Amino acid sequence: MKQALAVGALWVVLLFGGAWLLAPRLAAEAEEPGPSAQSGGETLADSRSVLQVYDGEKTVEMTMAEYLPGVVRGEMPATFALEALKAQAVAERTFIYYHMQGGRKAAHPDADVCMDYRCCNAWVSREQAKSNWGDNFEEYDRKILQSVEETDGQVMLYAGKPILAAFHSSSAGITAKSGDAWVSDLPYLVSVKSPETAESVPNYYSVNTFTAEQFREKILAEEPEAVLEGSAKGWVTDLQKNSSGRVESATVGGVPIRGTRLRSILGLRSACFTVECGEEDITFRVTGFGHGVGMSQYGADALAREGKSWQEILRWYYRGVSIETWK
User: Does the keyword Glycoprotein apply (predicted)?
Assistant: First the structure.
């Protein structure tokens, strides 16, 4: 997101399979003239892959070539370098097939995927993109379609299966392994260095200050056993950080809380934070945006601008994977 420089878009934080990303919250529409409709794409692998897509009201049939451009528009700014957009297209395609392999979701049992960012993917139609991008529409639309067509059918596999191609907006110089954010470690989602900096990422550093009452209300709603009385100075203690610099755990009002959960409770941009407790307020200084696992979108853009290909970008963030045509 899941998630920046999208023109005319409202960027929101979203939950991505237990992970947070940055993505534009925009209206989804079912009609989508994707690559197959614009370039004789019946020969494309994506044009031969048919999906059942829930558009919020009904289930419609779309090819991957029709669905995927809308997802790339929704999940990554079109201002990013083309190779970064290609990496995003492959990550998204892989993510879609990964979840399809696991069966349909309860939210849409008759559909493979949907257009709701809170469930599957952010999705933006060409019509909405044209309104958002204005005079830049032709350039940006061409880049999005090119990113999908030139990676046609390509997915990332590990042990012959599509991977959980997690991604996030920006890291604090290093990504997190999957176990840092979720429950288990996956062999291809390890911690790696990421090249984005404060100069290239809007709001790379953020500050959240809560009054004692605000903090107490948020914590007790989720952790009623916490003791938050008197001065706020001793309310948050014992910050333990993991190898990627994110908060692994903290003690809040005497109750141990995982860093990712504390981030969720307080609505922080990432679990990479420091805490300052005063008498009457508590301040969190945060770096980066997202769960930190897998591909950093701003990192991908930085790597692309250094001259790396989309394949090199993906192998940078997803270790030990093969990139193959999914049939």
Answer: no
Within-domain flag for 292: no
d(C-alpha 317, C-alpha 304), whole Å: 13
The SS3 assignment for 287 reads: strand
User: Where are the extended beta strands (E) located within 38-195?
Assistant: 50-54, 59-63, 113-114, 154-158, 161-162, 167-168
85-111 pLDDT, tens digit per residue, is 999 999 999 999 999 998 899 999 999
> Which structural domain range is residue 212 located in?
205-287
Q: Angle at which helices 64-75 and 126-133 pack, to 10 degrees?
A: 30
Place of tokens 């994707």: 34
Same domain, 275 and 158: no
d(CA 325, CA 327): 6
Please report the DSSP string for 191-211 in residue order: --B----TTTSTTSEEEEEEE
- Report whether pLDDT(69) > 80: yes
Number of domains in the chain: 2
- Burial class of residue 264 in the structure, from the number of CB atoms within 10 Å of its CB (0-12 exposed, 13-18 middle, 19+ buried): middle
Q: What is the pTM of this model?
A: 0.85
CA atoms of 13 and 150, how far apart (whole Å): 29
Lookup: tokens for 145: 């379609």
